[in-house]
């Protein structure tokens, strides 16, 4: 089993920055594709970014390209989401997810159903 715990959310003004972290425990996630999703009230859960096991390749939703950056530190079983130039539309609960695959080389998994393990989420609120 895998447990994912997110942290780093909070309240920030538009234009500000936050850094989310996700620590994995249990079965190692160092070989797994990891991702961040978000869920805003009244909307479906939305793909944000994904990163392959080595960190060498990433893929982003168009709405966050150039503002959010996903990274990982396999030695610490941690995935980060650096968020800059935040907008009120970024307000949501952000979830870390692990696909549970092994050494996939293509960051192509964008659907929530592609991921087997989920954290509890961390709230990000961006005020205008």
Structure description:
The mean pLDDT is 96. The chain is mainly β and 128 residues long. Helices cover 0% and strands 48% of the residues. The chain has strands at residues 2-7, 10-13, 18-26, 34-39, 46-51, 58-60, 68-73, 78-83, 92-98, 117-118, 122-127.
Fold blueprint:
Layout: E1 2-7, E2 10-13, E3 18-26, E4 34-39, E5 46-51, E6 58-60, E7 68-73, E8 78-83, E9 92-98, E10 117-118, E11 122-127
Parallel strand pairs: 2-11
Antiparallel strand pairs: 1-3, 3-8, 4-5, 4-9, 5-6, 7-8, 9-10, 9-11
Low-confidence parts lasting 5 or more residues at pLDDT below 50?
A: none
Report the count of strand segments: 11
State the distance separating the first and last CA atoms: 40 Å
Order of helices and strands: EEEEEEEEEEE
Shape: globular
Cα-atom radius of gyration: 13 Å
Number of DSSP helical runs: 0
- Percent of residues in β-strands: over 45%
How is the main sheet built? Answer: 7 strands, mixed
Structural class call reads mainly beta
The averaged pLDDT comes out at: 96
Helix content: under 10%
Throw out a few tags for this protein.
128 residues; four-stranded antiparallel beta sheet; 48% strand; mainly beta
Concise structural overview:
By secondary structure, this protein is mostly beta strands.
């Amino acid at each position: 089993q895998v447990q994912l715990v997110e942290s780093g959310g909070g309240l920030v003004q538009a234009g500000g920055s936050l850094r989310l972290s996700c620590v994995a425990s249990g079965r190692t996630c160092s070989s797994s594709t990891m991702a961040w999703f978000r869920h805003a009230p009244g909307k479906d859960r939305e793909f944000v970014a994904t990163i392959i096991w080595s960190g060498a390749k990433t893929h982003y939703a168009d709405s966050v390209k150039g503002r959010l950056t996903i990274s990982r530190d396999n030695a610490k079983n941690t995935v980060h989401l650096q968020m800059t130039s935040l907008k009120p539309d970024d307000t949501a609960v952000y979830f870390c997810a692990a696909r549970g695959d092994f050494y996939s080389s293509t960051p192509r998994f964008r659907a929530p159903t592609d991921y087997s393990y989920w954290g509890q989420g961390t709230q990000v609120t961006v005020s205008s």
